[in-house]
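Section 5.1 Outputs to date
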Amino acid sequence: MDVEIKNLEKLMIVYLKGRMDLVKSNDLERSLFKLINEEKGKHLLLNFEDVDYLHSSGVRMLISLHIRLEEHGAMLMLCCINQAVKKILEFVDIMDMIKIFNSEEEAITAFPASDAGGYHG
């Protein structure tokens, strides 16, 4: 899974690309946990625009990330999820736990301006 990170003052945007299968989701989880520990207190927005598959291990990873971020006083948000991924998240009843937005712009707009760290589009 390819990952690109945009690091703002209080918000990290992670662009994911590819299939989030068992191996890739475990590797991604390790990388994101390292990032969260290095950037304590920053919120995390995962952009799923280029993710076409989500394995159950990816769902577990999202829950773990949510918990870890809450421990650091931050939150996890998702954006740009496709219908297949959305159905999985609805099935496992995660939609109420993690904020999900249709677009990156919508997520950033909903994010308090003082916390976005200078994002201007």
